[in-house]
């Protein structure tokens, strides 16, 4: 019983392997895919995996037409949180009636099933036409009318507005799938605004309750590590260093919470290791009385070099339009979006348009109601030798990077004002925090006012906005995200705040997967937490509850 006999001629074939064998079946599938002249254009393999930390893990392959998803969660949770259309499922030795119904929910028309004989009854009840075969059985999903394999969107042309980390990642992820993309940037070159700092740090977030933000941060961090390796690697194709990050606790109470997280034992040491005060002090070379986290795989990177690597990977599928100034958008009668220059000249037109222009997005009529706030961040540039040299990134209330090209980056301020100029008060704040971290009252003493100011794009919940933009003008009953009316073909990659380096790859992958109708790289609950319509949904729910004199939530 071989599901590979059924993939011939498909544009895409999605396999779900419920055997928790760490994706061992993937190697055989990949070998068969390469050897078969009738192979599908794209192979997507989803497998349960034993591992920690928990969550969905997408692993990009050398061939962009092959994707591996490892679901490091129990089967019931994996099926409940997976958004995919499955063409074949292998469930030998596992599953029950609830799992059978969940697999049927995910099954594409005519999907093939391979399972143990003991499961034949529950899968028959779930809509599969089954026949035994010596201790095992195979089935065909008959719950929906069989049809040809899913067709990819056509035409696959898009405009990406903004050439920072968000926009460059969007270009690369779409071009890797065969899209033709036009990148439109108001400035003369990429990484000019929020992505223009000399160094950005990358590390995950932790929390005692492993909340949504923590889980998203973890998924983004782990995906980014593999993604950057595929582009050539930090410290090679990308300027930076995977030198590790030491994050010091902010005081005894904060340290107590961090020790409790470490005591849960769910994080491998190469991901996050708690260092008590003696160990943290020894690493720092000065007193660290409350200990800290060591993120061995964290580090820093030059955002502009990350953007350059992503855009270079796009090849001939990318057209770049730089220096166009401010633009407006127009929806054409044929459904295409056109980006217009200030004089009304059409810059580019496509059925799909992605806003990845940070705080500039709210100046566009279609995105004006998004609750995005510009937050000023001033980074201080310190000459090498003006502070103690450390071979890793140090952070806490501020951060300090190792010197590159003779400069340490320290910062950053978090100010609710639009002032673009360097100011002494922000520098003094940065230096005071760095001195506290280093335990050195003279660090950076007498440093000239040098650095950079950027405007972060921040949402109220500090999470990105990824997906189709809501259209507030279109009314109707709204109870869930899927009920919210959207602008057809208009999407967002916004709100990365101060973590654009980490957010950009996974958010772009999530959006590209949605646009191509692929399995999502995240649990559905996490993908929903990033939906740009979440704020409008909350507003409509509050309005509904108010209309009932506060007697209900409107859910």
UniProtKB/TrEMBL annotation:
MF-aspect GO terms: oxidoreductase activity, acting on the CH-NH group of donors; tRNA (5-methylaminomethyl-2-thiouridylate)(34)-methyltransferase activity
Keyword Ion transport assigned: no
Pfam families in the cross-refs: DAO
Keywords for the protein's UniProt record, in alphabetical order: Cytoplasm, FAD, Flavoprotein, Methyltransferase, Multifunctional enzyme, Oxidoreductase, S-adenosyl-L-methionine, Transferase, tRNA processing
GO cellular component: cytoplasm
Domain (FAD dependent oxidoreductase): residue spans on this chain: 158-514
Biological process terms in GO annotation: methylation; tRNA wobble uridine modification
InterPro entries registered for this protein in UniProt: FAD-dep_OxRdtase, FAD/NAD-bd_sf, tRNA_S-uridine_synth_MnmC_C
PANTHER family assigned to the protein according to its UniProt record, in alphabetical order: SARCOSINE DEHYDROGENASE-RELATED, TRNA 5-METHYLAMINOMETHYL-2-THIOURIDINE BIOSYNTHESIS BIFUNCTIONAL PROTEIN MNMC
Protein name: FAD-dependent oxidoreductase
Organism listed in the record: Massilia glaciei
């Amino acid at each position: 019983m071989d599901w590979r006999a059924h993939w011939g001629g498909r544009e895409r074939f999605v396999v779900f392997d419920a055997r928790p064998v760490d994706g061992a079946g993937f190697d055989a599938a990949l070998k068969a895919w390469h050897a078969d002249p009738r192979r599908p254009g794209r192979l997507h393999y989803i497998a349960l995996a034993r591992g920690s930390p928990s969550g969905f893990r997408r692993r990009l392959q050398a061939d962009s037409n092959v994707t591996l998803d490892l679901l490091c969660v129990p089967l019931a949770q994996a099926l409940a949180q997976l958004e995919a259309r499955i063409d074949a499922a292998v469930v030998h030795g596992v599953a029950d009636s609830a799992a059978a119904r969940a697999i049927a929910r995910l099954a594409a028309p005519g999907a093939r099933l391979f399972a143990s004989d003991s499961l034949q009854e529950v899968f028959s009840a779930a809509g599969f036409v089954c026949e035994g075969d010596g201790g095992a059985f195979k089935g065909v999903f008959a719950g929906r009318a069989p049809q040809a394999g899913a067709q990819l969107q056509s035409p696959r042309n898009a405009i990406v507005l903004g050439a920072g980390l968000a926009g460059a990642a969007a270009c690369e992820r779409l071009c890797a799938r065969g899209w033709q993309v036009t990148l439109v940037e108001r400035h003369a070159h990429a990484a000019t605004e929020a992505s223009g700092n000399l160094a950005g740090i990358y590390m995950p977030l932790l929390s005692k309750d492993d909340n949504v933000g923590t889980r998203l941060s973890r998924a983004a961090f782990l995906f980014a590590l593999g993604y950057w390796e595929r582009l050539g690697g930090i410290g090679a194709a990308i300027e930076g260093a995977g030198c590790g990050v030491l994050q010091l606790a902010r005081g005894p109470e904060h340290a107590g919470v961090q020790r409790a997280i470490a005591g849960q034992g769910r994080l491998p040491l190469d991901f996050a290791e708690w260092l008590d005060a003696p160990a943290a002090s020894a690493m720092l070379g000065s007193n660290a009385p409350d200990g800290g986290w060591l993120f061995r795989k964290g580090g820093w990177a030059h955002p502009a070099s990350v953007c350059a690597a992503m855009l270079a990977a796009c090849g001939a599928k990318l057209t770049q339009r730089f220096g166009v100034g401010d633009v407006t958008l127009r929806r054409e009668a044929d459904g295409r979006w056109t980006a217009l220059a200030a004089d009304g000249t059409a810059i580019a037109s496509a059925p799909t348009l992605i806003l990845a222009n940070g705080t500039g997005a709210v100046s566009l009529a279609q995105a004006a109601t998004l609750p995005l706030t510009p937050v000023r961040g001033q980074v201080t540039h310190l000459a090498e030798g003006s502070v103690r040299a450390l071979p890793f990134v140090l952070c806490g209330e501020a951060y300090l990077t190792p010197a590159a090209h003779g400069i340490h980056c320290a910062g950053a301020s978090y100010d609710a004002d639009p002032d673009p100029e360097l100011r002494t008060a922000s520098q003094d704040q940065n230096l005071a925090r760095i001195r506290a971290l280093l335990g050195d009252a003279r660090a950076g003493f007498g440093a000239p006012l040098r650095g950079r100011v950027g405007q972060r794009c921040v949402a109220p919940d500090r999470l990105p906005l990824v997906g189709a933009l809501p259209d507030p003008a279109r009314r109707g009953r709204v109870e869930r995200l899927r009920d919210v009316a959207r602008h057809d073909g208009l999407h967002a990659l916004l709100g990365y705040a101060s973590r654009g380096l980490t957010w950009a790859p996974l958010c772009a992958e999530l959006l590209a997967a949605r646009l191509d109708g692929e399995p999502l790289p995240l649990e559905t609950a996490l993908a929903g937490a990033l939906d740009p319509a979440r704020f409008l949904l909350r507003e409509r729910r509050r309005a509904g509850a108010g209309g009932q004199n506060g007697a209900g939530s409107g859910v």
